[in-house]
Amino acid sequence: MEERASGQRSRRLRRLRPVAWVVAVLCVAVLATTATARGTVLSPGFHQGVLKDQHAYDRLYNEVLVDPQSLPVARDLLGRLPVPEAAVTSNLKIVLPPETLRAMADRQIEEVTGYLRGEHDTLRLTADLRPVLTNVGDLAQTYFGDLVASVQRQPEPDFPAFLTDLNSAARSVTTGEPPTGLPALELSREQAVTAARALLQVVPEDRRDALRPEVEVAMESGDVASALAAVGPEAVSDRTRLATEQLRTTVGGDTWDITADLDTSQDALAPLHRARSVTHLAQEVVEPIAALLGVAALAFLWFSGPRAPARRLMGLGWALAAGGLLTGLAALFARAATDDGVITAPASWPQSLARLVDDVGNAALDGIIGTATATAYILLAAGALLVTVSWVWQAGPALTVSPRRVQVLAVGVAGAALGGVVLAPLAVGRSEPRACQGSARLCDRPYDEIAQLTSHNAMSTTADQFIGPLQDPGITAQLNDGVRALQIDTYTWEGPEQIAERLKGSDFSPRLQGQIKAAINKFNPPRDGLWLCHSVCRAGAIGLVPTLRETGDWLRAHPTDVVTLIVQDAVGADDTAAAFEEAGLTDLLFTPDPDPDEPWPELGDMIDSGRRLVVFAEREDGPQPWYRNFYRYGMETPFAFRSPADMTCAPHRGGEDKRLFLLNHFITIDGGSRLDAGTVNRREAVLDRVHDCERQRGRPVNFVAVDYLNIGDARGAVDALNAER
Question: Where are the bilayer-spanning segments (predicted)?
Answer without folding.
Answer: 285-303, 315-334, 374-394, 406-428
